[in-house]
Automatic annotation (TrEMBL):
GO cellular component, one term: spliceosomal complex
GO biological process, one term: RNA splicing
Classification of source organism: Eukaryota, Fungi, Dikarya, Ascomycota, Pezizomycotina
InterPro entries registered for this protein in UniProt: Beta-prop_RSE1/DDB1/CPSF1_1st, Beta-prop_RSE1/DDB1/CPSF1_2nd, RSE1/DDB1/CFT1, RSE1/DDB1/CPSF1_C, WD40/YVTN_repeat-like_dom_sf, WD40_repeat_dom_sf
Keywords: mRNA processing, mRNA splicing, Nucleus, Spliceosome
Protein name per UniProt: Pre-mRNA-splicing factor rse1
Entry-linked PANTHER family: DNA REPAIR/RNA PROCESSING CPSF FAMILY
Length: 1223
C-alpha cells in the first residue's frame, strides 16, 4: 500500500456476523461436557453450557481470516482421552485440524496441510467434508472432479498424525453430497452423490442432459494397500440432494438415507432399497400439489436405538426410523423390516440441527435468532405414521401422496435463544434516547421471523431488589462481620440528614441499631479491619469496633474535620480539612496505630486511595492523594520512608475519586497495578503504577459524562472490575478472552453511589443508591457490549426511514411467493373448508402459506420505545400496519418535505406490480403518498401515482421528491390527485438505479452493475446533467453515502467497501453557473468525459446493505458505519496523521508475517483482504488488534521493528483507535 495515498481508513468490526452456516457438537475440552462450535463467515465460535439449564454461552470466538466452508468433528480412534478434534475446510486450499485448549481458552492448530490453490474454485476440494465415524480418515471433495482422502492416525506419543492425500478423482463429475459411512472397524467407506456430465457436454441436442442419471457412489479406503477405490455405484432419484449416515457395525445395518424431492430412500450395497414419501401439509391455504425437499437433517444414536430428524423447507421436522427384524430374544437380526416417517414438530428453517446428550436440540436457523429446544416426549403413536410398505421404491411410479396437519405436538419446547440479526437489510443511526452516544437501528430477518432491532452500547443489568429509604442517600458500603464469612452482613448508608443508616443482610433486609456504628454522624468509610473488627470513619474521627463490642475512638484535632478517607483490611489513611494526611496501620495486637509524622499538602485533599493488600503481603505499598490543585500524588507507606513522594501527575481538572487496584494487563501478560482516577469534569483516567518505583505512566482517558466521576471496586464474572458513576454508570473490566481493558456503560439509570455486594442469592452483586431508594443489581453478562432489543415485524423488511422530527420509524415489508392477507382470508372462509383446515397457526413458527407468483406487502409504523403491547406473549408490536394490494410489493420508502405545501412532511412508498426476479419482469409501479396523522403514529393514504417501472429509490431533494426509476431520474412535486413530474433525465445509468445520495444540488446515483454516476441539478435550466462516472464495474448493493462533497462510499455484492472521489478540477467546473459547458462534454469510452478516482478499496467479506457517515461515541470522530447481510456491523475510521498511518502499516505488515499467531485456517491475509481487487488505502484493525494476544516475546520483537517503540505504546495506539471512534 503506497503511503502517497491521500486517504487512509482503519477498518474495525463492532459486531461480528451472526449467520451460522454450520454447527457441530463434541467433547472438545476433554471432559464429559459437550460443547457446540459454529461457523459464521470467518468466525469460529465455541459455546459452553451456561449456569441455567438449557442455556449456552459463547466461551471463545476467533476470526480465522478466511472463509469457513465446512466443519467436521472427530475423535481419534484408540485413544484414552475423550477429546474431539475439529477439521476446518476453508478457502485457503489447506486442510486444518484444530484442538481446543480449555486451560488457555484458545484453538491450537494441530495440522495444516496444503492440497490445492486458494480461493473457492470448482475443482479445488473444500466444498464437501466427511469423516469416518471411527475417526480413522476424512475425505474432502470439490464441486467437480477432485476428491482427496487423508488417513488420521497417532504416533507413539499418542499425538495426531495425518497422511499425504490419497486421490479419488473422476473428471467431468459433479458432486452434490458427501458423507462417511458407519462400517464399524472395516475399511472406511465414503458415500457421494454424483452426476457424470461427459455425454451431456458433447451432445448439442440436449437429449443426453435430459437422460443423465444421478448415482450413489461408495469410495473405499483400503488401509492395508493405502489407496482409494470406487467400490459400488447405484442409480438414485435425480432430485436427490442430501445423504444421511445410518449407524453400522453392532449399532445398525449401515448404509445411507438418500433425500430428494418428496422422497427419502434407504440404500446400501447389500440391502434392498426402501422409500417413503415426505408428507405434504394439509389446509385451506396449502397447495396440495407442492412437493417438499429436505434441507437439514441429522442422525441421533441412543443406547439401543437410533432415529433421524429431517426438516423440509417449510420447517417441518419429521422423525424417520428403520424398523429392524428381531429374533425371539428381541434382538436385532440386522435385517430391515421397513422405513417409517412421522411428523414430529415444526421449527424455523435451519442450516444445521444438532442434538446434544443433555436433551437439547440446537436449531441454527437460516434467518433470525438461533434457538435451543428441550425434548419433552420422544414416544411414538400410530397417528400420522407412514411406512415404506405404502410406497413404491421408484418415486416416478404412480402413487397417492400423503398429508398431515401441522401444529404443536408437545415433543419439544423452546428453552433459550442466541441473538442474531441475520440477514440485515438496512441500518440507521440516531440518538433518540438523547444520551451521550447514539443508537443503531436495523431491520433483519425474513417472513414472520423479521425484527426491528435497536442496538445500544452497554451491558445488561438485572434489578434484584428496590427499597425505599427514610431520606435521600449520599453513599453506601457493605461489610462482613468476619473475614471467614462467605457473604456480606451489613449495608451502611449515609443519608441526607447527616446520619448513618445500617441494614442487616439475612433472610430479610432490615434496619439494626446494635452494630456499634455511630448513627448520628455521616459516614465517610467502612471497613472490615483485621479478621473480625469493624471500622467507621466519620468527619469527627475514627471508630474502631472490636469483636467483643468494645469501641476505640480516634478524634480529629480541634477545629479540624476529616474530609476524605481510604481503607483496607490493614491500613487507614485520612485527610483533614487543614490539608494534612494521617496514616494508620493495624499492629500485631489488632489495634489501630497512627504513624507519628503527618504529611501536609499544599492544597485541599479531595480524595484518597490505598488499594487492597496484595496476597502474601501485610500492606499496600502506595497511597494516592488527589488535591484541589488538579494533581494526583503517589506516596510510599513503607515504614522506612512513610509518606515519601514517589510521583506526581498533573490533571486537567480536580480529581473527584481515586482507586488503586490490580487488573489483568495484556502488556505484561499478568496482573498490573493501576490507578483509576475520576475528575470533576466527568473524565475518567487509568494510569499504570510501577510497583517498584511508584512512577505513573501509560495514561488512558475516557469522557464519561458531564458530572463528577465516583469510583468503587466491584466483582463481575469472577474478576475485579471498576464501577465508575457519572451521568450514567460505567463498568471497567478486563475482557475474558483478550484481557483488554474495556469501559462499558451499564443499561441503567443514573446512580449516586455503588458498592460491591455478596449475598447467598447474588454472589456478584452491586448495591447502589439513587435518590431515596436502595437498589440491588447484577450485571447480566460481559460477553457482548451491545444490548439488543427487537420488535417483531409482519413480513421481510426491505427498507425503513425515520420520521423527520419524531422518534418513529416506517418500515416497508414484502414477501415473494407468499399469499397476501386478503387472499388468505378469502381461502379460509371458502365453502369447501372442512374442520381443521381453517386453523391459523403462528406464522413465526409455521410460516405464511406459500403461493407461487404472489406478493404480500405492507408498511408499518414502529416506535422503538413502546411498552409491551401483547401481555400474553410479552412482546412489542408495531403501532400501525397498512397492507398493500395483492401482488403489489413495496420496494422503496422515503420522507419528503414539499416546499409547495408549507414544508409539510409526507411519507412516500414505491411499489412494483407483479414483479418476478428471474427473468426480471414487472407491470410498472406506483408511488404512494401518505400523510402523518396522530403525531406520526398512523398513516393516512392520500393517492398513488402510476410509473412505467417500479421506483427503486425515493429521496427528498430541494423541497421535492427525487425518484430513481429504471435507468432514469425524475423530480416530482406535490399534487392533489397525484404527484406532478417536474423534470426527467433519461438513461442516467447504464442498467438500473439502486441508490441515491445528495448534497446540495449534486446527486450520486448507484447503478446495479456499473458503480456510481455523479450528476448535478441545474435549477435555472431545470435539468439533470451527468458529468463523472467510474471506469470499473461495481455491483452496488446499497445506497452510497457522500463522505464529503466530492467523495462517495458504497459496497458491492462481492463484499467490498470502496471510496471514489470526483477530481477537484471537475468538481469546480460543474459548480459554475449554467449548464452549457456541461452539455458540450464529449463521451469517452461509452461514458462521461471524466472519471472518478479510487481512494479506498477493502474486502470485508460480507455483502454491505447500508453505509452511513456518523459518530458513535461522544466527542468522537466521524466514521463510516456499514451493515452486512450476515448481521455484521463494521466501521471505517479515517486517519488524521501520517505518523499513525506509517505505524499501523508497519504493524499490519509485521502481523501478516508473524509466525506466532498465523491465521488459523492458513489463508494469506493480504489475499484475503484483496479477494476481488487489491486492497488500497485501508488497514485491517481486526488483524492489528490480534497484537495484544501475542506472547510477550513476540510483542517485543515486533515493537523493535516498529522504530523501537514500546509494547505499551503500541497497545495504547490500538486501544485509542477503537475507544475514540466506537466501542
Amino acid at each position: 500500500m503506497a503511503t502517497t495515498s491521500s486517504m487512509f481508513m482503519y477498518s474495525l468490526t463492532i459486531k461480528p456476523p451472526t449467520a451460522i452456516t454450520q454447527a457441530v457438537q463434541g467433547q472438545f475440552s476433554g471432559t464429559k461436557e459437550q460443547q457446540l462450535i459454529t461457523a459464521c463467515g470467518s468466525y469460529l465460535t465455541l459455546y459452553r453450557p451456561g449456569s441455567t439449564l438449557g442455556s449456552f454461552n459463547p466461551a471463545l470466538s476467533r476470526n480465522v481470516f478466511g472463509i469457513i466452508r465446512t466443519l467436521s468433528a472427530f475423535r481419534l480412534s484408540g485413544t484414552a482421552k475423550d477429546i474431539d478434534f475439529l477439521i476446518v475446510g476453508s478457502d485457503s486450499g489447506r486442510i486444518t485440524i484444530l484442538e481446543y485448549k480449555p486451560e488457555k481458552n484458545t484453538f491450537k492448530r494441530v495440522h495444516l496441510e496444503t492440497f490445492g490453490k486458494s480461493g473457492i474454485r470448482r475443482v479445488v476440494p473444500g466444498q464437501y467434508l466427511a469423516t469416518d465415524p471411527k475417526g480413522r480418515a476424512c475425505m474432502m471433495a470439490s464441486v467437480e472432479k477432485n476428491k482427496i482422502v487423508y488417513v488420521l492416525n497417532r504416533n507413539a506419543q499418542a499425538e495426531l498424525t495425518i497422511s499425504s492425500p490419497l486421490e479419488a478423482h473422476k473428471p467431468q463429475t459433479l458432486v452434490f453430497a458427501l458423507v462417511g459411512l458407519d462400517v464399524g472397524y472395516e475399511n472406511p467407506i465414503f458415500a457421494a452423490l454424483e452426476v457424470d456430465y461427459s455425454e451431456s457436454e458433447q451432445d448439442p441436442t440436449g437429449q443426453a442432459y435430459l437422460e443423465v442419471e444421478k448415482q450413489l457412489v461408495y469410495y473405499e479406503l483400503d488401509l492395508g494397500l493405502n489407496h482409494v477405490v470406487r467400490k459400488w455405484t447405484d442409480v438414485v432419484d435425480r432430485t436427490a440432494n442430501m445423504l444421511l449416515q445410518v449407524p453400522g457395525g453392532s449399532d445398525g445395518p449401515s448404509g445411507v438415507l438418500v433425500c430428494g424431492e418428496e422422497s427419502i430412500t434407504y440404500r446400501h450395497s447389500n440391502q434392498d432399497p426402501l422409500r417413503v414419501d415426505i408428507p405434504r401439509r394439509q389446509g385451506a391455504t396449502e397447495d396440495p400439489g407442492r412437493k417438499r425437499y429436505i434441507v437439514a437433517g441429522l442422525m441421533h444414536k441412543m443406547r439401543d436405538d437410533f432415529f433421524f430428524l429431517v426438516q423440509t423447507e417449510d420447517g417441518d421436522l419429521f422423525k424417520v426410523k428403520l424398523q429392524m427384524v428381531k429374533d425371539e430374544n428381541e434382538k436385532s437380526t440386522g435385517e430391515i423390516r421397513c422405513l417409517t416417517i412421522k411428523y414430529f414438530e415444526t421449527v424455523p428453517v435451519a442450516t444445521s440441527i444438532v442434538i446434544l446428550r443433555s436433551g437439547f436440540l440446537f436449531v441454527a436457523t437460516e434467518t433470525g435468532k438461533q434457538l435451543f429446544y428441550a425434548f419433552e416426549d420422544l414416544s411414538e403413536g400410530p397417528e400420522d405414521t407412514y411406512t415404506s410398505d405404502d410406497f413404491p421404491v421408484d418415486p416416478r411410479e404412480p402413487h397417492e401422496p400423503v398429508y398431515f396437519r401441522p401444529g404443536p405436538r408437545g415433543n419439544i419446547f423452546h428453552s433459550s435463544t442466541i441473538d442474531s440479526m441475520n440477514p440485515v437489510t438496512d441500518c440507521k443511526v440516531a440518538n433518540l434516547l438523547h444520551e451521550d452516544a447514539p443508537q443503531i437501528y436495523t431491520i433483519s430477518g425474513t417472513g414472520a421471523r423479521s425484527n426491528f432491532n435497536m442496538l445500544k452500547h452497554g451491558l445488561g443489568v438485572d434489578e434484584f431488589a428496590e427499597s425505599a429509604l427514610p431520606g435521600v442517600a449520599q453513599a453506601v458500603w457493605t461489610t462482613k462481620k468476619a473475614r471467614s464469612d462467605p457473604y456480606d452482613s451489613y449495608i451502611i448508608l449515609t443519608i441526607s440528614n447527616n446520619q448513618t443508616f445500617v441494614l442487616s443482610l439475612g433472610a430479610n433486609i432490615e434496619e439494626v441499631t446494635d452494630t456499634g456504628f455511630l448513627t448520628s454522624v455521616p459516614t465517610l468509610a467502612v471497613q472490615l479491619l483485621g479478621d473480625d473488627a469493624l471500622l467507621q470513619v466519620h468527619p469527627r474521627g475514627i471508630r474502631h469496633i472490636l469483636p467483643d463490642g468494645k469501641v476505640n475512638e480516634w478524634g480529629a484535632p480541634q477545629h479540624r474535620t476529616i474530609v476524605a478517607a481510604t481503607t483496607n483490611e490493614h491500613q487507614v489513611a485520612i485527610a483533614l480539612s487543614s490539608g494534612e494526611v494521617v496514616y494508620f496501620e493495624v499492629d500485631n495486637e489488632g489495634n489501630l496505630a497512627e504513624y507519628q509524622e503527618r504529611r501536609e499538602m499544599a492544597a485541599t485533599v479531595t480524595c484518597l486511595s490505598l488499594g487492597e493488600v496484595p496476597p502474601g503481603r501485610i500492606r499496600s505499598e502506595f497511597l494516592a492523594v488527589g488535591c484541589a490543585d488538579s494533581t494526583v500524588r503517589i506516596f510510599s507507606v513503607d515504614p522506612e520512608n512513610c509518606l515519601e513522594d514517589k510521583s506526581v501527575q498533573a490533571l486537567t481538572a480536580v480529581p473527584s475519586a481515586l482507586h488503586i487496584m490490580p487488573m489483568a494487563d495484556t502488556s505484561s501478560g499478568g496482573q498490573t497495578l493501576f490507578l483509576h482516577i475520576g475528575l470533576h469534569s466527568g473524565v475518567y483516567l487509568r494510569v499504570m503504577i510501577d510497583e517498584v518505583t511508584g512512577d505513573l505512566s501509560d495514561t488512558r482517558t475516557r469522557f464519561l459524562g458531564p458530572q463528577p466521576v465516583k469510583l468503587s471496586q466491584v466483582s463481575a464474572n469472577g474478576q475485579p472490575a471498576i464501577l465508575a458513576l457519572s451521568s450514567q454508570p460505567w463498568l471497567g473490566y478486563a475482557e475474558r478472552e483478550t484481557h483488554v481493558f474495556k469501559l462499558t456503560p451499564l443499561n441503567y439509570r443514573q446512580l449516586e453511589w455503588g458498592w460491591n455486594l455478596r449475598m447467598s442469592a447474588i454472589p456478584e452483586g452491586i448495591v447502589a443508591i439513587t435518590g431515596d431508594s436502595l437498589r440491588i443489581l447484577t450485571v447480566e453478562s460481559l460477553t457482548s457490549n451491545l444490548l439488543h432489543e427487537s420488535i417483531p415485524l409482519t413480513y421481510t423488511p426491505r427498507h425503513f426511514v425515520k420520521h423527520p422530527h419524531l422518534p418513529l420509524f416506517y418500515v416497508i415489508e414484502a414477501d415473494n411467493n407468499t399469499m397476501a392477507q386478503d387472499t388468505r382470508t378469502k381461502l379460509l372462509s371458502g365453502p369447501n373448508v372442512v374442520n381443521g383446515d381453517a386453523n391459523v397457526l403462528p406464522p413465526e413458527t409455521f410460516g405464511y402459506p406459500r403461493g407461487k407468483g404472489h406478493w404480500a406487502s405492507c408498511v408499518e409504523v414502529v416506535d422503538p420505545f413502546i411498552q409491551i403491547t401483547d401481555p400474553t406473549t410479552e412482546t412489542k408490536a408495531p403501532l400501525f400496519t397498512e397492507h398493500f394490494e395483492p401482488n403489489e410489493a413495496a420496494i422503496s420508502v422515503g420522507t419528503v418535505t414539499f416546499a409547495s405545501k408549507d414544508e409539510e412532511a409526507f411519507l412516500v412508498v414505491g411499489t412494483g406490480v407483479q414483479m418476478t426476479a428471474s427473468p426480471p419482469s414487472d407491470k410498472g409501479g406506483y408511488i404512494h403518498l401518505f400523510r402523518f396523522v396522530d403525531e406520526g403514529r398512523k398513516l393516512e393514504w392520500m393517492h398513488k401515482s402510476k410509473t412505467e417501472a417500479p421506483p427503486r429509490v425515493l429521496q427528498a431533494f430541494q423541497g421535492r421528491l427525487l425518484v430513481g426509476m429504471g435507468r432514469d431520474l425524475r423530480i416530482y412535486d406535490f399534487g392533489v390527485k397525484q404527484l406532478l413530474r417536474k423534470t426527467q433525465a433519461m438513461n442516467v445509468v447504464p442498467n438500473l438505479i439502486v441508490g441515491l445520495a445528495t448534497q446540495g444540488f449534486r446527486i450520486v446515483c448507484a447503478d446495479i452493475q456499473e458503480s456510481v454516476m455523479y450528476c448535478v441539478y441545474k435549477y435555472q435550466e431545470n435539468s439533470i446533467v451527468k458529468f463523472c462516472d467510474d471506469s470499473i464495474a461495481r455491483w452496488n448493493t446499497c445506497s452510497p453515502v457522500m463522505v464529503d462533497y466530492d467523495t462517495a462510499a458504497a459496497g458491492d455484492k462481492f463484499g467490498n467497501i470502496w471510496f471514489v472521489r470526483c477530481p477537484k478540477a471537475v468538481s469546480d467546473l460543474v459548480d459554475e453557473e449554467g449548464s452549457t459547458h456541461l452539455a458540450m462534454q464529449r463521451e469517452y469510452l461509452q461514458g462521461t468525459e471524466h472519471r472518478v478516482e479510487l481512494m479506498v478499496h477493502f474486502c470485508v467479506h460480507d455483502i454491505p446493505t447500508s453505509v452511513h457517515k456518523t459518530s458513535l461515541v461522544p466527542g468522537g470522530r466521524d466514521v463510516v458505519l456499514w451493515s452486512g447481510l450476515q448481521g455484521t456491523l463494521g466501521i471505517l475510521v479515517p486517519f488524521v496523521s501520517r505518523e499513525d498511518v506509517e505505524l499501523f502499516q508497519q504493524l499490519q505488515s509485521e502481523m501478516r508475517k508473524n509466525e506466532a499467531e498465523p491465521p488459523l485456517a492458513g489463508r494469506d491475509h493480504l489475499a484475503y483482504r484483496s479477494y476481488y481487487a487489491a486492497e488500497k488505502g485501508c488497514i485491517d484493525g481486526d488483524l492489528c488488534e490480534r497484537f495484544v494476544m501475542l506472547p510477550r516475546e513476540k510483542k517485543e520483537a515486533i515493537a523493535v521493528e516498529l522504530d523501537n517503540r514500546s509494547v505499551r505504546e503500541i497497545e495504547r495506539k490500538i486501544a485509542d483507535f477503537r475507544t475514540r471512534a466506537a466501542f
